[in-house]
Amino acid sequence: MTTLPPPEPRSFLEEVQAATPGDSRLLMCIQCGTCGGSCPSAKDMDHSPRHIFALIRAEMREEVFTSNTPWYCVSCYYCMARCPQDVHITDIMYTLKNMSIDSEFEEAKNGSDLAHAFAHNVDTYGRSFEFGLATRHYLRHQTSTLLKKAQMGIGMLMKGRLELTPDKIEGMDQLKTILKKAKELEAER
């Protein structure tokens, strides 16, 4: 009886491609930079999307999973609309968020914590509560920048652009029904 050799371990690139629904077209990235130039959140990202893709190809898991780039993606799809190669950038960012949560790198949990806090606000109030979300995040993960951000927050409060207390939306029962159904559908996957 002949035994087959064990399968070759997957590359990081293959893992990301396999975990991304549909055809990610990640291999099609030509490193043109259109994605980063199109992104409204690019100035806050520590790596542009094309740099993240280069890190994936270079097997640099820790750098990818500890990057804030996937967490700053606002899923506006502007990068995908402008990508000359039709790379599914937003879908890949979503995949990287999920993979980083399951990674062994503790720094990757910062973005996950922010995402869970945001989801909790939506579950509780039907919308984001920016003051509470930002305060929680900066107290837990970025205490060194809290004073700088607090100055901006005070300015927003003074101009009526930020609320100190959360407001629930009307029709919370309907939203809870929708969210419950979404969670049921997700569990079936």
Secondary-structure element string: HHHHHHHHHHH
The proportion of strand residues reads under 5%
What is the CATH-assigned architecture of the largest domain?
Answer: Orthogonal Bundle
Number of structurally distinct domains: 2
The CATH class name of the largest domain reads Mainly Alpha
Instruction: Please report the number of helical segments.
Output: 11
User: Overall mean pLDDT score?
Assistant: 89
Q: Detail the poorly predicted runs.
A: none
Might you state the CATH topology name of the largest domain?
A: Fumarate Reductase Iron-sulfur Protein, Chain B, domain 2
Looking at the structure, what is the overall shape?
Answer: globular
- What is the gyration radius calculated from CA atoms? 20 Å
Distance between the termini: 38 Å
CATH superfamily of the largest domain: Alpha-helical ferredoxin
Strand count, sense and barrel status of the largest sheet are: none
Number of E-state strands: 0
Account of the protein in words:
This protein has 189 residues and is an all-alpha fold. It has two domains: 12-104, Alpha-helical ferredoxin (Fumarate Reductase Iron-sulfur Protein, Chain B, domain 2, Orthogonal Bundle), CATH 1.10.1060.10; 109-188, no CATH class. Helices cover 57% and strands 0% of the residues. It has helices spanning 12-19, 34-38, 49-57, 61-65, 69-72, 78-82, 89-101, 109-125, 130-141, 146-158, 172-188. The protein is globular and about 70 Å long. The mean pLDDT is 89.
